Amino acid sequence: MTPVLPISFLTDYGTADGFVAACRGVMARIAPEARVLDITHEVPPGDIRRGALLLAQTLPYLPPGVHVAVVDPGVGTARRGVLVRTSEHLLVGPDNGLLPWAADALGGIREAYELGNPALMLPQVSATFHGRDVFAPVAAHLATGTPPSEVGRRLDAGSLVRLADPVAYVDRGTGYAEVLTEDRFGNVQLSLAESHIRELGVERGGALDVEAGGDVHWVPYRRTFGDVAAGALVALLDSAGYVALTVNGGDAARALRVRPGDPVKLRRPDSGTGAV
Description:
By secondary structure, the protein is an alpha+beta fold. It is built from 6 helices and 15 strands. It folds into 2 domains: 7-159, Rossmann fold (3-Layer(aba) Sandwich), CATH 3.40.50; 168-267, Bacterial fluorinating enzyme like (Elongation Factor Tu (Ef-tu), domain 3), CATH 2.40.30.90.
C-alpha cells in the first residue's frame, strides 16, 4: 500500500477568515490520513517574494511530501497553476515565481506540470479561490498516490516564472546587498553570505560599516545576539546562513529604517572608501 505523504501549507490568507480551514477541510476529505504541517499563513498579502523566501528557507527541513503554497494576487487570470517535482518533493501553487527558489533549495526541478485535470479539482472552481478549489484538492490527491503526470500536461521547467535574484555581490571593497526579510523580532536578513563578508576582509570578531536607511553605522560582526550589550547593533550569520543585522533585545529594522527590498552596503571600517 502506498504511504500517504505529509502536506505542508503556506499562504497569505491569515487566520481571521475561514480560508485556511476551507482548504484544510478539502484536503481532509480527500486525504484524511495525511498530516498537514502549517508553515505560515501570515505572508503579507500578495507578497510573492516573501512567500518564496519562506518556502526556500523552510522546505529543506521538512520531510519529503507535498507542499502547497498560495500567494496568488493573479488568481483567476491567465497565470498557470503548476506542480513542480524535485527528487523527493512535490510543490503545488501558482506559476508566479513562488515555487522555483524552494525547488532550487531542494536540489532542483526534475519535472513541471500545468494543473489541468478537472478530475483532481473541486467540481466548481471559483475564479477567486484556487487555493480551496484547485491547489488543495490536487495536493491531497498527490499525497494519496496520484502520479504527478496525471495533473496535466508536462511543461518545460525553463518556462516557469522566476523572480529576479536578489542583489548580492562585492565590488572594490564594498558589499552590495538588499534586505531579504524582516522577521517578527525586527531582525534584518540580508542577501549576503559569509563568503561575501570574508571577501570584504572581515572575520568574526571584526566589524562592518553598514550603510542603510541613509546613515552609516559601525556594527560589530559576532556569533550571536548576546555577544554585544543590550540595545546594540550586531551583524551575524542567521540560521539560514545569511548575514543578518540585529539589535540585542531590540528591533534592527526600526533602528536602521529599512524594509524588505531596500539596498544596503557593507564595508570594512578601515577600507577608506567612505560613504557613497
